[in-house]
Structure formats: C-alpha cells, structure tokens
Amino acid sequence: MRKLSFICIMILLMMQSLFAQEVLVGNERMKWWREARFGMFIHWGCYSQWGGTYNGNKIGGGGEWIMNRGKIPVAEYMDAAKKFNPVNFNANAWVKMAKDAGMKYIIITAKHHDGFALFKSKVSTWNIVDATPFGRDVLKELAVACKNNDIKLGFYYSQAQDWVNPGGAVKRKLAKEGWANPDSARIDAYTKEHNGHWDSLQTSKSMADYIDSVAVPQVKELLSNYGDIAVLWWDTPTDMTKIFAEKLHNILMLQPQIITNDRLKGPDFPGDTKTPEQSIPGLNEIDGKDWETCMTMNETWGFKSYDNNWKSPAVLLRNLIDIASKGGNYLLNVGPDACGEFPTESVNSLKIIGEWMKVNNEAIYATKASLLKPLEWGKCTRKDVGENTTLYFSVFNWPSTGKLSVYGITNNVASASLLNGNISVKTEKRKINGMDCLDIYVPDKAPDNMVSVIKVQFNGLLVPKESPENGKIKSGSID
Fold first, then answer.
1. pLDDT at 176 over 70
2. What residue segments make up the domains of the chain, in order of their start?
3. 3-state secondary structure of 280
4. Distance between CA atoms of 344 and 356, rounded to whole angstroms?
5. Which strand (E) or helix (H) includes residue 175?
6. Is 182 helix (H, G, I), strand (E, B) or coil?
7. Of 120, 123, 125, 311, which sits with the fewest C-beta atoms within 10 Å of its C-beta?
8. What pLDDT is stored for residue 128 in this prediction?
9. Rounded to two decimals, what is the model's pTM?
C-alpha cells in the first residue's frame, strides 16, 4: 500500500509539473499579444468592388455579405471577379499605416464567407491570382512587408461558411435579408429546401467534401507558405462538427506558436482568445481570459461606398484606452476599396491615433487591467515593475477645479507627471470619510484635446482598498 501511495504521489507531481510547463509555454506564446494591445483588422476581397450595391440596390448589412444578402448567383459573382484589379494595392503602405498608428499586428481576411482567397491556392482557382486580372498573391506581399516592419501577421479564415466553393455552409438566419433578385419567390423555395443555399452549384457537394477538399488543404497552405503566422482567426462555425473541427485544429501543429480565437467550434475548441464583436465588455463580463474586441470604424467590415457613419478619432482612441484598462486588445478594422486603398476617413483617424500613441503609448503597451473601481473622469492602466506599481490615468474629462481625486490607494507616490511634455504634477494624500484619497493637481488646460495621460509611480505594489459603499464617493472623482 505504501508503495502504491508513493507511485500515485509521484504520478500526481509529474502531472502538476507537466501542467505548469504547459501554462508556462502558453504564457510565453501569449506574451507579445498581451503586450501589443492594438491591432489592425482588414476585410478585403472581391466583394469590395461591389461597394455594397447590387443591380442598383443598396444591400443591407456589411459590404462583405453582399453575395449572401443580395442572393447573387455563383456564376455571376465569380464572373465579376474578372474585373477586380486593385492596382493601387501596396503592402508596404498598408503596413506602414498600421505601424504609424501604433498597431502591433495585422489580421487580414485570407478567405471570407464568399470563398474568395487572397492568396495563390492549389486547392481552388477561386483566388486572387487565378480569378482576377490582378494576378498577385496579396498575402505573400503582406508577409514580406510585415516582417520588414516588425509587425505580426495573422490570417482570418472562414472555415465553415463558403458561398462559392461547393459544400460550404450558409448562415441561414440571413437567408432572406436584403434580397435584390427579382425572382425572390423561387430563391425562397430553394433556400428552404437546401439548408439556406440559393444556388444549385453550392449544393453540388457535401460539407464533408468541402472540409476535406478546400478548408483543410487551404489552411495547410496558409500555415506552410507565408513564414511565421502569429494568429489564425476562425469565423462563424456554421454546421461545424467536432470531426470537422479536429481536422482543422490538428493543422495548427505546423505553427506551434500560433494564437487562435474561440470561433472554430464553440466551447469544445475555446482557442486562446475570446472575441467580443462591436462592443466592449463591462467589468462584470470579464472572466480573466484573454480577450480582443474587434470593431469597425463605420458600420461595415467590407467596403461600402455609401457608409459614412464614421466614429470620430476621439471615440476610437477612447475605445482603445477603455479596452486596455480592462486587460483586452483592440482589433480595429479597415475596409479597403476596390482599388486597394484605405478610405480617407480611416487614413485620417489612423494618423490622429498614431500621433497620440507616439506621446502616450506607454500607457497602452504591456499594461494590465486597472485594479481600481471605475473612474468618473477617465480610465486607468497599470504596470507592475519589480516591487513597484505605475498607474496611467487617461483623463477624458479634464477638471475645471485643477484637481483629480482617486480613492482607495494607500501607497506613497514616488513621482507624478504628464506624459505629454513630461511635466511634473503635485500630489497629496488625505483622508475623507475614513478613506484614503490621492489628489492629483493638474494644469488649468489639458495638454491634449482628446485624452491626456498622467503617470503616477508608487512605492510598492498597489493593493487598493475598497471605497465606501455609501454612494457618495467613487474610486475616482473630479473634486
């Protein structure tokens, strides 16, 4: 019995050691991603040439969904690709805009739901090299540009939905939205009978055929032909089975350091990151897992010529800060047009954000979530360096009184300054209603019109105390 107990203990210790090693490897693999905080999403493909319009009708939803929502026949959609010739595409220019904006990685739609591949594929001629007059492998050029500029490159891949390659799935809840085809009654009958598809060419093979003959070999191409790939961003696991998902998941061995998201097939394949879309989680929704909010600058992912509902640069910047203050990453989308150029509004916003990042990036990169309760006047990010903590207070609403108050901090301040100009500011500790309060005295005028950052270095690691629950004092307020 003693011998058996000893063996069981040794096995348990070995299992704990192996688990610790796996966690360590996972943390090492995630390190760059957690420090990056800011990346660029790019939705681009032959759908960009449609600009959101089909047969003179504006089609609802994202520009990348036009084939589905307009119920464009496969032959017609493929034929239009013969005119897709983005002669102004410049990989170096795209990567430079991302880098100048302060972004650390790029995720591009290697293949979206229309099945069109932005790379040379031996699997299907439905790709930018073989099906268009452009004839160049976009991913190959981006891979070189990213490597030269120290930007991580990742690929979005629609593993289940595919509206052109036979056998691909269709997200059925969108089957009747925004139709522009005059023969919609016939299409309606067909989609009900054929699992959401609207063209007989789509159902000429099974989904098992599609997974084996298109999805699996194309993912192998993506992970074999373009050097180190930082992220594989799956999307919409429509009709995915565990067997299908396992076939795709097994290919990841080709890139041992790759990071994946949670969209391969539900909770059975959680990946490394959660992916809230078009929204920023509240504090009560964050569960300690790595997460990344993906968001558009206007209302579409793929280019739409008439979508002018652009978020302001200030809103985009404050989104970035909000996300970083909660320990997440911001994957901000750009939808290039048919010529391969970023919309002017996207270019202008990226430039403005980049100018802010040049001055204030240390408040974003390699930061952790705030330990404080929500501030009334802004957001907070933190860094623990050695035995000391630094807090970065990003002030959205500059105080007219010249003073900001933060509650629940007992540590002594080592230094405090504005990042813009490195100007020292005065701080003072006091008690209010029995609670520790740190006052930060600031100039009358904010150094930055959008967001100003105050850097406060503390002696010791910060362990803030709870603020009074009397409804009168928040963890931070304009006093």
1. no
2. 33-363, 370-478
3. coil
4. 19
5. none
6. coil
7. 125
8. 98
9. 0.91
**Whole-number Cα distances in Å, 294 to 32, 237, 460:** 18, 17, 35
> Mind giving me the DSSP string for 345-414?
HHHHHHHHHHHHHHHHGGGTTT-EE--SPPBSSEEEEEEEETTEEEEEEEESS--TTSEEEEES--SPEE
CATH 2.60.40.1180 correct for 370-478:
yes
pLDDT band at 320 (very low <50, low <70, confident <90, very high): very high
257, 29 Cβ separation under 8 angstroms: yes
Q: Return the amino acid letter for 467.
A: S
Pick the CATH number of 33-363 from 3.40.50.2300, 3.40.50.300, 3.20.20.80, 1.10.472.10: 3.20.20.80
Q: How far apart are CA 136 and CA 87, in angstroms?
A: 10
pLDDT per residue as tens digits for the range 187-212:
777 888 888 999 999 999 999 999 99
* Lowest mean per-residue pLDDT among 77-81, 128-132, 178-182, 370-374: 178-182
Asked if 452 and 398 count as a contact pair (C-beta separation under 8 A), the reply is yes
Quick one: pLDDT at residue 186? 72
29 burial via Cβ count (<10 Å: 0-12, 13-18, 19+): middle
Complete DSSP assignment for 294-352:
EE-SSS-SS--TT---PPPHHHHHHHHHHHHHTT-EEEEEE---TTS---HHHHHHHHH
